[in-house]
Design goal:
This protein is an alpha+beta fold and 374 residues long. It has helices at 8-12, 21-24, 29-32, 105-115, 192-202, 209-217, 291-297, and strands at 40-41, 54-57, 60-64, 89-93, 96-99, 141-145, 161-165, 244-245, 249-250, 280-286, 302-303, 321-325, 345-348, 356-357, 361-362, 372-373. Bound molecules: calcium ion.
Length: 374
């Protein structure tokens, strides 16, 4: 990294680098691990015709979280999951509509054209917000995956993440990059408030983490992947992840090195494309590593949980983070295997990256019961 000060903090909270989660969680996996129980899907029909591009998720009760990896240490690099995804706990969510795909560049462009919205990454940082930053560093930009050309130890993510001046949703890798012809790719370089602004315009909202996971599981119970038990059933690639050697070599064996257009891989049981892999997705929950443990400790079913009241990441207690889910085209079993459906990510709310986007949900109009317990 050649820059210091402005948004360097943001770089340090990149979700792909959450190597701290293993040790940061307050939960003890050995003492509070639950187990998966049957998914009980609500009956009845969808409340009406599906909004364009959305599908009905009936909601119901399910077991949320990730199982302990079998025969593997939950180390912080090639982890199957992190301890913040434990224990498995029981959750109920009401039915809702959800986007079949992540929001695309084409969709986001319509929003920007209609509203004149300027994303966080396009705004020049203000000195008052970064009083310690040298003025010359107050340049609009965002965080970009910038892989080394040789293998590196996986304990320093600054070797593959850079803050790039001029990077934003129109120029995901920096000023010389473009999304021309990529209307069907997921929009990236989106900060949390950018996603909220789009959602308000679209008459939708971000999913809670629980809604996201219920939808992602596609009606299955406790499977490690959104589609079932095997990463590659019958040899078939089911999601856009990373092959080769992380971070220096992505062979694209699954069809894409780097980001892919939406819906290039089979949908899950609810008809959702790229619910894991391709780009991470914002959820509306604040991040705390011990949230699952808090819910599990009550011993009941968490109804429509909306996340903790505030963010707290012991690794970076000063940062406000929301939960990311789904993993990305950079995820690999060598590092950050969080295309596994029960696992979690997190990210500082003002930080976009070129592998982070979002998809939205819509409630039926029936007021959901507030988060909490029965
Ligand atoms: Ca790939």
């Amino acid at each position: 990294m050649k820059r210091s000060g402005i948004r360097m903090v943001a770089v340090t909270v990149l979700l792909l680098a959450t190597a701290d989660a293993h040790n940061a969680t307050g939960a003890s996996s050995s003492s509070v691990i639950g187990s998966f129980q049957a998914t009980v899907v609500n009956g009845g029909q969808p409340p009406g015709p599906a909004p364009e591009g959305m599908v009905w998720i009936p909601g119901g009760e399910f077991s949320m979280g990730a199982a302990d990896p079998v025969g593997k240490d939950m180390n912080d690099v090639g982890m199957n999951a992190t301890n913040d995804s434990r224990p498995i706990h029981r959750v109920y969510v009401d039915g809702f509509w959800i986007d079949k795909t992540e929001v695309t560049n084409g969709q986001f462009a319509k929003f920007v054209k209609a509203t004149g919205y300027v994303t966080v990454a396009e705004r020049t940082p203000k000195q008052e917000d970064f009083p310690d930053a040298p003025p010359e560093s107050l340049v609009a930009g965002s965080v970009v995956f910038s892989p080394p050309d040789h293998p590196v130890p996986l304990d320093d993510y600054l070797q593959w993440w850079s803050y790039v001046n001029g990077a934003n949703w129109r120029h995901p890798f920096g000023p010389k990059s473009s999304i021309k012809g990529e209307e069907q790719y997921p929009v990236v370089q989106i900060a949390y408030e950018d996603a909220l602004a789009y959602a308000k315009w679209a008459g939708k909202r971000l999913p809670t983490e629980a809604e996201w996971e219920f939808a992602a599981r596609g009606g299955l119970m406790g499977k490690p992947y959104a589609w079932g038990d095997q990463f590659r059933p019958n040899g078939k690639w089911m999601a856009n992840t990373n092959q080769g050697h992380f971070p220096d070599k992505d062979t694209g064996a699954d069809g894409y090195a780097g980001i892919a257009p939406v819906a290039q891989y089979p949908p899950n049981g609810y008809g959702l494309y790229d619910i894991t892999g391709n780009v991470w997705q914002w959820t509306s929950d604040w991040y705390r590593p011990d949230y699952y443990a808090q819910l599990a400790a009550t011993g009941g079913v968490a109804r429509n949980p909306k996340g903790p009241d505030s963010s707290f990441d012991p690794a970076e207690p000063g940062e406000k983070k929301r939960v990311h889910r789904g993993g990305s085209f950079l995820c690999t079993e060598q590092y950050c295997s969080r295309y596994m459906v029960g696992t979690r990510g997190k990210g500082e709310i003002s930080t976009g990256t070129n592998h982070l986007g979002f998809r939205l949900v819509k409630s039926t109009g029936v007021p959901a019961r507030e988060g909490g317990k029965e």
